[in-house]
UniProtKB/TrEMBL annotation:
Membrane-crossing segments per the record: 172-192
The organism of origin for this protein: Pseudopithomyces chartarum
InterPro entries (alphabetical): DUF829_TMEM53
Keywords, alphabetical: Membrane, Nucleus, Transmembrane, Transmembrane helix
Coiled-coil portions: none
Pfam families named in the record: DUF829
GO cellular component: nuclear membrane
Protein name listed in UniProt: Indole-diterpene biosynthesis protein PaxU
Topology term for the membrane: Single-pass membrane protein
Subcellular location(s) per record: Endomembrane system; Nucleus membrane
Amino acid sequence: MPSSPQHTAIPGFTLLAPTIWERQPSPYIHAFSTNDPPSLIIVLPWTGAHGKHVAKYTDMYHVLFPSAHILCITTSTKDICLRSSKKKQRMLQPAVERILSHVDAHDGHANILVHAFSEGGSNKAVELAEAYQKTTGTRLPASALCLDSTPGHPHYRRLCNAIKKSLPPIPILNCTGLFIGSALLGGIWILYRCFKGYENNVISRTRGRLQDANYWDPTAPRCYFYSKGDELIAWQDIREHMGEALRSGAPVLDILGRGVFDVDED
């Protein structure tokens, strides 16, 4: 199925492994005053995110926390629709190793911020957390988790909108890709509805794994950023998940914005 190129360069980053990018801290800029800045920021963009759009967020983090390392792990439509968790976690091993080396360098006291965008980013976040847990026997040491326009429940039309957003802007490629992607998504939808079980689809499993204490510290602060105008993720789904996190004891920051992150701006 057509998808945006996953090796599109992210300004300021070097390619560590396929889909995994790294930005080194700046030794020349002082961070804004903060008592406990993150030492590592893990950014997990939306499906098919273009490097120049991702850079708007990574540049902001670099200015706010210039002493922090930044890892950026991208997601393709193929990741979401076709790749198994086992395959995705195998591809994430270079990121796990980099996180481990960072934790060791900080004597086990690294301050890690995880920022996941939309369903593609949140799925990659839980795959990373599970890969880390399987490698180390401990949960991913995330000090804070920002869930940006995620997680939702699976809604067919909204998922088709997400596929459309991830495709190239060239009209013929966009239309062809949307047709093929929607047909494939429909087949997957029927497969889970009728045979594998609705609760076992990628989005529902991602939603549950974000609350799993085996992978995440349930006391770590969470920020939910969302919009009532989001065409991809229903805001009610996000608020429902936020309520579950609150009941489990997580400190939660609820940010209702005017709009969602911009995937189209040049």
